[in-house]
Design goal:
Number of helices: 11
Number of domains: 2
Structural class: mainly alpha
CATH superfamily of the largest domain: Intergrase catalytic core
Largest sheet: 2 strands, antiparallel
Distance between the termini: 68 Å
Strand order of the largest sheet: 1-2
Shape: globular
Order of helices and strands: HHHHEEEEHEEHHHHHH
Oligomer: single chain
Helix content: 55-70%
Low-confidence stretches: 224-232
Length: 232
Amino acid sequence: MTTTPQTLTTDDCEKLLAALLNRRGYQATKEKAVRNYCMALLMLDAGLRVGEVVQLRSRHLYFNCQPVSSIIIAAEIAKNKTERRVPFSQRLFEALNNHAQVNGAFDNLFNDKFVFYKRPNYEPLTTRQVERIVRKAAISSLGRPIHPHVLRHTFASRLMRTTNARIVQELLGHKHLSSTQIYTHPNQDDLKNAIQSLDRNHSNNDVTEARSTRTADIANGTDTTNANRDMR
């Protein structure tokens, strides 16, 4: 039995990103905050797996001292060993540029270092470390822990509401369409929007009914609205 993947609402995403970017004014903390925010957006806005994020090198994200407009997930770091290309959103492009400015990613272009590392030895972050970063930010901002894969699931679910499954399959790097079709299930945003549309329909129906009733009263000569106003 296929289960619906856990996803975040739009409000949840904003809260989580704000928590990751909270740097409290300290330079070392600022560097980590910008790094962590950038990693989260690569999963939330580009659908990368956490295992792909930690393997990214400078050549994957930057060219000629600028962020690239789309990323090619090389076969050697992709889970299914199949290359794919994913365009970047504007906020992800800006986050990558900010990360380069704050953490010196442009300086690493010639030696092609890992983009997301820990100091002082510049070793790449592990998937477990990224999991702890996202978990801590989620607990502080959402009151519950989440796994980084939830960000990728959220990316996929949002796309399924705006484009077809084949495109989502390509962006996620799924071998089989059946793996992508789990995202056709409604998420919390879908359920909330459905109820809100129901409320709007009720409100519109009430207004229409009121107008129809008054029109009928006027036609029958029984409308007392203006008469009552004249008596005040």
